[in-house]
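Exercise 7. Given the components listed, write out the predicted structure of the assembled complex. Treat all entries as one system.
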Amino acid sequence: MRGLLYNILIQGKSYFIATIITFVALTVTCGLLLNYCENTLVLQLLSLTPILAPMTILCISIESVCKRTEKMLKCGYIKYTLTSGVSRNMYALTELVTILLIVAFSYGLSSGFFGVMKAIEPMMIGENYFRNCFLFFFLFGAITQTANVLTLYLKNEEKAGVLVGFICGFLVMVCGFVTEDEGGLRLEMTDEIFWGGLIVSALIYAVCHVVMVLKLQRTSS
Amino acid sequence: MENIIEIKGLTKKYQNFALDNVDLVVPMGTVMGFIGENGAGKSTTIKAILGLYKRDGGEVKVFGEDSEKLSNETREKIGVVFDTIPYPKNLTVTQLEKVFSGIYKTWEAEKFFGYMTKFGLPLKKKISSFSRGMEMRLSIAAALSHNPSLLVLDEPTGGLDPVMRNEILDMFLEFMQDENHSILISTHITSDLEHIADYVSFIHKGKIVFTEERNEMLEKYRILKCTDEDIEKMDNNDIIGMRKGRFCSEVLTDKAEKYPDIVSDKPTIEEIMVYYVKEQS
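Answer.
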């Protein structure tokens, strides 16, 4: 797994660096604006950043993971590693670990951002925001895993991304997780939804892992 | 003699192509040349050996194990070179070495960097900037650096200049100094096989046409320079392939001793392949 992970980290190096720079810049800018800006329109826009910032980072992470998979598939790297001492299960497990690492990395960065915002303006970040965001990131990791498996099937990350986007958009609309009120977007998150979400996400991870192992048996043919 | 690769009745069906009852054996300590035109089934057979797909029928054993269930230890004993370089091209050689050292337990960094120096490959340049020849040299170096006992090579010398091709063939001969080592080499450049192959197996339209010892094969076949009258006198069963010329025709046969009066030449492996393919297409 060490060699595979090293390759993934090298491939995603620019993504990690760019994300860190963006988040640091965003935190500093938002912190300064919150402290010194009195324009209500700007402040209203700032209240959206706790949702928009993590969503942006997660969208980039989906793109980076799937793009890498497509590239590895097309250059024959997956086929090559499977002929070496790497089992299909190990390959799929490495992909899973990578996604969980990206989730942890994204959540860590976002938490730093939320922490700074909360320190400056306690009202801006709600009571359960860290907990809810954890679920949000974990679920998004499962979505990334789904898109990654679909990339293997469709051999094209754009198609996989569009398909997953449609499915997610549909589910969000049907389930009504996100509602709109005067204060902007709010995540309606009860304890049941939180734990249910965690379980569903874990199931998606597990199913996608199995599907990926099965697909890898046919990918190289 | 122990067989490193044993294929019996391998069958795999695709929409427009099928491997039909392929039998192939690679004994330990030998080099098997695997020849055939594009789309004949060479790469599909190699993929079956590497266990890269589920076969429809037959049996493929590598080091005595079913190729679909090869253990990781056995996989490490196989060095593979594909016709295209299967590495992420945005990596440098140094970065790639770190990937390999994490993948192979038997990886030898010193050996790998030794090959890099020998081949004159830059360590800090991205692989995407490499020429075809440099890519193949890198691929071969990687295959040899984890100490395999079997090399499976799919068109390894394609795109290389004659000097480099000879250098690489010499490396394969050096690899074969160990009597426990074996090579299966699929190639279009059949002249390469005349240097290194012990056996030659010819596949055409998914079927093995023949597998023969190289020298015996080259002794067995003859190209007869025939007039139209000579051809009329010949038994049709003796004619494997024929090429009509303006003044005389050339006939490939394995029964040249029946026609001592006709001028004959020794064919090359390439000629044998071409005559077979022409006759059957």
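Discussion: The CA atoms of residues 230 and 262 of chain B lie 8 Å apart. Chain B has ten helices and 14 strands.
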